[in-house]
Amino acid sequence: MKALNSFGFPVLRFNFRGTGLSQGEHAHGEGEVDDVRTALDWLDTEYHLPLIFAGFSFGAAVGLRAACPDMRVRALVAAGAPVVPVAAESEEPRVYSYDFLQGCTKPKLFVSGARDQFGPGAKLRGMVDALPEPRKLVIIEGADHFFEGRLRELREAIENWIKQTVFTEG
Questions:
Q1: Domain assignment of residue 170, yes or no
Q2: Is residue 160 helix, strand or coil?
Q3: How far apart are CA 43 and CA 32, in angstroms?
Q4: 133 in any annotated domain
Q5: Mind giving me the DSSP string for 22-62?
Q6: Gyration radius (Cα) of the chain, Å
Q7: Is the separation of the CB atoms in 66 and 101 below 8 Å?
Q8: pLDDT above 80 (res 170)
Q9: Where does the chain show beta strands of DSSP type E?
Q10: Sign of the CA dihedral 123, 124, 125, 130?
Q11: The total number of structural domains that make up the chain
């Protein structure tokens, strides 16, 4: 959020249904894709600017589903994208697949911590390497899934990529 806002982009940060004080119930990824579509619609209506999608963890996984096919979205950022099954208490594990990105030719940035328990380096690298260009993977040494103590490096990775990718496109 801070990296995108530093360029003067309007930013919308929200909780998915059933998280924090938001209304509704967790919809196992399907309803949350609709949440992202609604957010993209609102940003487009409110600002009429090209959109850059950025999501963290579960938000990255479901947000990419909505953002990739949306013609208004110019670039995609996924921080802490999970690639191994993740289970919350009393839930079946969430299994993450990014096969839907096989046809996505938009610029894609994946940023992960070297110690991310939900995005082990080899598995994440294999997933990103299988995607069409343009794509980039940045691993932040010493960072865990939440980038604790490494938020500056996360922000710098996103800012540098935006400068190199978004502002150099035609």
A1: no
A2: helix
A3: 17
A4: yes
A5: --S---TTHHHHHHHHHHHHHHHHHH---EEEEEETHHHHH
A6: 15
A7: no
A8: no
A9: 51-56, 73-79, 108-113, 135-140
A10: positive
A11: 1
Q: Which of 35-49, 80-94, 154-168 has the lowest mean pLDDT?
A: 80-94
The token duo for 99 is 């096969």
78: helix, coil or strand?
strand
pLDDT for 12-60, tens place per residue?
887 665 666 666 665 455 678 999 999 999 999 999 988 999 999 989 9
Q: What CA–CA distances, in Å, run from 65 to 37, 151, 152?
A: 9, 25, 27
Is 22 contained in some domain? yes
- Which range of residues forms the domain containing residue 143? 2-165
Cα angle for residues 54, 118, 113 (degrees, 5° grid): 65
Residue 5: both structure tokens together: 């806002």
